[in-house]
């Protein structure tokens, strides 16, 4: 079975380190009400309007800002992609089917949850939901795929 899009299995531990580290960092930032900002750096901002439109729009400008949230987000996304798209030790057609079914389920479930939040959550809270929604498809996929693998192993025994 040829799966050219999958990464080598040996990258999976790195993915877990990035993913869990990013989630822990992100939770620290969220629970500190975004006040915890240990890392500041000058970065290229392609588009900058200030917080809630408080200043004029600026394009391609170097700004100084906190980058902890961005680093946590990048770690979650890259780690999640590595976990989700690394080969298993035994990559057979059953694993391929589990991966495909989990991915479809995760996308459908994610958009169902998003539809509920569109209908029932408003204002700045909805913005927070959209931020979390960047990560939920990967999270749902990883949880579902690993749950189905674990469940299939327990049925084999």
Q: Would you kindly provide a brief summary of this structure?
A:
The chain is mostly helical and 157 residues long.
Q: What is the helical fraction, as a range of percent?
A: 55-70%
Structural class by helix and strand composition: mainly alpha
Q: Over the alpha carbons, how many angstroms does the gyration radius reach?
A: 19 Å
Q: Total number of helical segments? A: 5
Describe the strand arrangement of the main beta sheet, using strand numbers: 1-2
User: Count the strands?
Assistant: 2
The major beta sheet can be summarized as: 2 strands, antiparallel
Please tell me about this protein's structure.
- By secondary structure, this protein is mainly alpha-helical.
- It has helices at residues 12-31, 68-84, 93-120, 123-132, 136-156, and strands at 40-48, 58-66.
- Strands 1-2 form a two-stranded antiparallel sheet.
- α2 (68-84) packs parallel to α5 (136-156).
- The two termini are 25 Å apart.
């Amino acid at each position: 079975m040829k799966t050219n899009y999958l990464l080598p299995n040996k990258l999976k531990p790195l993915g877990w380190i990035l993913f869990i580290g990013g989630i822990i960092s992100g939770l620290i930032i969220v629970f500190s009400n975004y006040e915890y900002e240990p890392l500041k750096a000058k970065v290229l901002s392609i588009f900058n309007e200030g917080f809630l439109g408080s200043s004029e729009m600026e394009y391609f400008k170097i700004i100084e800002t906190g980058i902890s949230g961005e680093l946590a987000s990048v770690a979650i996304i890259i780690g999640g992609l590595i976990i989700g798209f690394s080969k298993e030790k035994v990559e057979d057609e059953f694993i391929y089917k589990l991966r495909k079914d989990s991915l479809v389920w995760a996308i459908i479930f994610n958009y169902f949850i998003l539809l509920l939040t569109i209908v029932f959550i408003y204002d700045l809270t909805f913005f927070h939901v959209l931020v979390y929604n960047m990560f939920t498809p990967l999270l749902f996929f990883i949880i579902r795929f690993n749950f189905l693998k674990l469940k299939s192993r327990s049925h084999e025994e």
